[in-house]
Amino acid sequence: MVGHVYHVLMLIVRGAEEVWTGTRRLGNVSLVCDAGRVKEASPSPTLPSNGADAEYLDASGCVVIPGLVNAHHHLLQTAFRTLAGTRHLSMGDWLAAMGGYYRRAGIDPELAEAAAAVAVAEGLLAGVTTVADHHFTWPEGVAPLELVEATVGTARRLGARLVFGYGSAGDAPDSLASGLESVMGRYPALDADGMLQIACGPAGVHSDGPETFEVFSEAARRWGLRRRTQANEAIDVERAAIRYDRRPLQLLEEWGWLSPDVTAAHLCGITASERDRLSAAGVTATHAPGFDVPMGLGICEVGALIDAGITVGLGTSGGGYNDAGNLLADARLALQVGGLTKRPPTALELLTSATAGSALGLGRPELGHLEPGAAADLCCYDITGPEDAGVGDPLGGLLWANPGRRPRHVVVAGKVVVKDGELETADAHALSGRLRRLMAARLS
Fold it and tell me: What is the pTM of this model?
């Protein structure tokens, strides 16, 4: 039923061709989920004595994998895709163009909610069970908490896990501190059911100085938040050189932002010595090829990062240039452009990045795998169609074959949120129509 997720004590996913737990490849097993957690993967699972207490999900002809974790998104940008004058610009000009559209549209809770609803729905339909939103836009006259509540409430209604990253792109440090105070007075760093997490951090050294970075460091210490930022985008490198005569990662180190609680997105064009420094500091990385490649920012050397012992996650980045929230499609793109690097990543490495790698960067070891005790977040991908015929390795084929692939079923916390390719928690077409009408009216 649309708008309602059926609550069951136990969910049994059965009939799959293969279950990839993140560490093991299993055939002829049923995956048992109990109270939102993975209980076991077994050919002879222990079932409840009363069959009415269990729901059975048919995964015949499917490969089952952990739910995808989108480690870097900008949900608001979903309302601003492929707009005139935003293609093939320098990053500075693109940021200015996007800012002009934000002012024309007027960023408020109504728009934040509508954009987040479409972005989260799009992600769920593409297998994204957890999405990390890095939000930078705080217009005058709108209480930051109202924008946060609009996004948080939407994700919860749709049944997705959300990491809300309270960010900055040139905002005054005092206003950031005040906004964070209001948000943390409303939400815990991680709620009891694991569906909402708060993180924080600036867009990068191109937009914010040491005072702002310190505001976020203090917030992280005070409330136990993960820190997030972007590094080594072209504008980051250019402005760091002009303003500070430094490289971005040098500044992050000087400002106390090379640390195990920090995740840095993009990381195009870093040197071998910078890579070694990130590894030594325990920083996690997020690869975002769906933004970096069309923007012309270069290619992150994912294989080299992995070989250096750096945990690599995967993100779509924002809809303002990637224009899509299909993380598996971006994993495929990473696989393809990886051929241009000295050490191409494998399909299995990129599937790991899109699941456990992203989760570890969020400080969430219960996500991104399907071993006993893990969160019961999973995707069932049908591999019986013509696009998968002739594929020698069904798991690798999830990336190499069938561009734009979507899952048959998606489960979050043991609840079926997508079934037979349809969103169970809302009317996806109604959400889309609402955003289209809203943007048409505001940009007319």
Answer: 0.97
